[in-house]
Amino acid sequence: MAARAGVFIYKIDAQQWLPTGFLPTSGTARASVTSAAWRPLSGDMLAVGTSHGQVHLWTVDMAGHEPPLDALLWQVPGQPPVDAVTTLAWSPTGRYKAMQRGTGGSDLVADIWRCAVNL
């Protein structure tokens, strides 16, 4: 049996694992989670970066009844293979999202954009 891949969220106050989402496949390969960051002030929005150069925004049902709603926020341009998203960060207000992508060394690229999703 293959191991489950994805993001696992444990809610400490309820002492339970929440249903989590799984990342989309690209051809036959499933993306790996390479970074994640909670959106400040939202309490339920998690940005997830992937090995396929994507940034997803998950809205997590903190009651634990439903898996996250998944929205693709950004895709690294170009044909596969593309750079993995190595770092994610939010501005303190949650209005701006920053990411770093690349394979390391001197070829890292940083992108910053305004997130249109309201808190």
Radius of gyration: 15 Å
Shape: globular
Distance between the termini: 39 Å
Largest sheet: 4 strands, antiparallel
Uncertain runs with pLDDT below 50, 5 residues or more? none
Write down the domain tally: 1
Report the strand count: 11
Counting DSSP H or I runs of 4 or more residues, the number of helices is 0
Strand order of the largest sheet: 5-6-7-8
Based on helices, strands and strand pairing, what is the structural class?
mainly beta
Helix-strand sequence: EEEEEEEEEEE
Average predicted local confidence, pLDDT: 75
The quaternary organization reads as single chain
Beta percentage is 35-45%
As a percent range, the share of helical residues equals: under 10%
What secondary-structure arrangement, pairings included, does this model have?
Elements: E1 9-11, E2 16-18, E3 25-26, E4 29-30, E5 33-38, E6 45-50, E7 54-59, E8 69-75, E9 85-90, E10 96-101, E11 109-114
Antiparallel strand pairs: 1-2, 3-4, 5-6, 6-7, 7-8, 9-10, 10-11
